[in-house]
Write a structure and sequence with these properties.
Order of helices and strands: EHEHEHHEHEEHHHEEHEEEEHHHHHHEEH
CATH architecture of one domain: 3-Layer(aba) Sandwich
Number of strands: 14
CATH class of one domain: Alpha Beta
Strand content: 5-15%
Length: about 525
């Protein structure tokens, strides 16, 4: 049952909030406002707001509190002060000071997710004579209640910090077990088995079209545009029912999940074979990557990890540009490991594992970082870091100046009222509340505008050590670490022929000391990093 409020001229429809019926004269005079929030856009759809509001209404009815207004924050995070409904709530409490006595929330973490912001908001509400009540947490205004409240606020912050780590760790564990925790791409769909465990299976409608697209493009006989038109004409659509855009189609062609491999860039997890059926074979997927690169030096970015053959699929045959494979050949008394070209029409490379890997480490030793490159690398990193620090410092200074300005305005206001008697009490109180609100919001923004500490000199020292000791490190580290190091030093892979190793692009901080090799391995520097051409 919704309680009603005595008719009141300042009772207005909310801007973005939810209007509430006016209570009647028979109900209690304690006026409250309700604040509910969901943290992501998706949660708006799943009754989370309705559940919070219903719980708050039931609580107010039990406690005989009259609701004046409900403020519903849709899809905003509690980590930032940039929440429109929170600002409207503070303004509403200031404009109705003396009338609104309490803010009711479902849980304290709905108001703030760290203890600093909670303390700022709590102090601001108390200055307006407004208390805070939580439906699901026992907080009171006595000393014990305040202690319990501060504990809940600290727990909310800890929960927020831990939840992100726990979620990411859970996703990593799922990927390592072969399960994909994210939304599946077009061509697959998620189902549940008898134990209600989520599984991935090929979508019977879009799956065959995706497979057809890969096979057509892998043949090299069709352009990407023609392949996209072909599958679009046969009904390929996004989950929203729209035609697949060229940009989305490009992302599909490089997505290793279609070959049954799971990988998340930046998570430091090696590729893992998924527990679902692949839409295309490894050979078709690799061929598509080669076609996308114009059949150039395009080692796929996600190398298959085999502990016996770390250079497999990383090194390409210099004659036909096909990625080398690795296998054991059986001799009279034992087996011998070999790297060889996979193309049956070529077979230009067929050499012992030890020979190819020794030549690769020799190649790494010839990679000598020039002094000017290392200096330039250090200067760029330090310059970028200092610029970020300067931006963060500048933002903090601007916010501090704004905070100081609001404090001076507050002091002048007090001077005008207390000593000069230039304004009346009502004007003084109205302006004081407004300035206090600005101070609280600016203080929260200042708290957010901090840059994490980083020992950038130590990071640079490690990077320089890595560059100088690449050959030795490659010999000593584990197979999966070898592949990480390879991809850092040679982002587009390498090729091998009788003349030796070559590459389209090394890491921009390297140049080759031998002129003959340098001519075969042109350096490709990213935008904003254009040092002089190597000698």
């Amino acid at each position: 049952m919704v309680v009603a409020d005595p008719p009141c001229t300042d009772f207005e429809p909310p801007r973005g909030g939810l209007a509430v019926k006016q209570p009647s004269d028979t109900m209690p005079s304690v006026q409250v406002v309700v604040y509910v929030r969901v943290s992501t856009k998706e949660q708006i759809q799943n009754l989370s707001l309705d559940t919070q509001e219903k719980s708050c209404r039931d609580y107010c009815e039990r406690e005989r509190l009259a609701i004046r207004r409900v403020f519903a924050e849709r899809g905003e995070s509690a980590k930032t002060a940039d929440r429109p409904e929170l600002k409207r709530l503070l303004t509403y409490c200031r404009e109705h000071k003396g009338t609104v006595k309490c803010v009711v929330v479902y849980r304290l973490d709905r108001l703030a997710r760290n203890s600093h912001d909670h303390a700022v908001l709590r102090a601001r509400l108390l200055s307006l004579g407004v208390t805070l009540k939580s439906v699901s947490e026992p907080i009171q205004d006595d000393s014990t209640g305040k202690f319990v409240e501060s504990m809940f606020a600290a727990i909310a912050q800890l929960d927020n910090d831990v939840r992100a780590d726990r979620t990411k760790d859970g996703m990593k564990a799922a990927i390592k077990a072969g399960r994909w925790p994210f939304q599946v791409p077009v061509g697959y769909r998620k189902t549940q088995d008898l134990s209600r465990t989520s599984r991935i299976e090929i979508d019977p409608e879009s799956g065959p079209l995706i497979r057809d697209a890969f096979e057509r493009y892998a043949s090299g006989l069709h352009t990407k545009r023609a392949v996209l038109k072909y599958v679009t004409d046969r009904g390929l659509r996004t989950r929203a029912g729209k035609p697949v855009s060229p940009q989305t189609f490009q992302q599909m062609l490089v997505n290793s999940i279609y070959a049954g491999w799971l990988f998340v860039d930046g998570w430091e997890i090696d590729r893992v074979r998924g527990d679902f059926e692949a839409l295309v074979s490894d050979e078709v997927f690799d061929q598509v990557q080669a076609v996308l690169k114009g059949k150039g030096l395009s080692a796929t970015t996600h190398q298959r990890c085999h502990p016996d053959f770390p250079l497999r699929h990383f090194v390409r045959c210099g004659a036909c540009m096909t990625p080398l494979t690795g296998s054991w050949s059986k001799g009279r008394s034992k087996s011998y490991p070999y790297y060889r070209c996979r193309d049956s029409r070529c077979r230009a490379i067929n050499m012992r594992k030890a020979d190819l890997e020794n030549r690769f480490t020799d190649y790494l030793r010839r990679l000598t970082p020039k002094t000017e490159y290392l200096s330039l690398f250090r200067e760029i990193v330090l310059d970028t870091w200092h610029r970020k620090q300067a931006e963060a410092t500048g933002t903090a200074r601007r916010l501090q100046r704004r905070l100081d300005d609001r404090q001076r305005r507050k002091d002048r206001l007090v001077e005008a009222f207390v000593h000069e008697r230039a304004i009346d009490r009502e004007t003084y109180q109205e302006q004081l509340d407004k300035i206090a609100e600005e101070i609280a919001l600016t203080d929260m923004a200042l708290h957010d505008a901090k840059l994490d500490e980083l020992d950038v000199e130590a990071v640079l020292g490690f990077a320089e050590h890595l560059m100088l000791e690449a050959a030795r490190l490659w010999d000593e580290i584990s197979p999966d670490q070898k592949q990480r190091l390879q991809s850092v030093l040679f982002p587009e892979g390498v090729w091998y022929s009788e003349e030796g190793f070559g590459t389209a692009a090394t890491s921009p901080i390297y140049s080759l000391s031998e002129p003959g090799e340098a001519s075969k391995a042109r350096m490709a520097s990213p935008a904003g990093f254009e040092p002089a051409s190597p000698a």
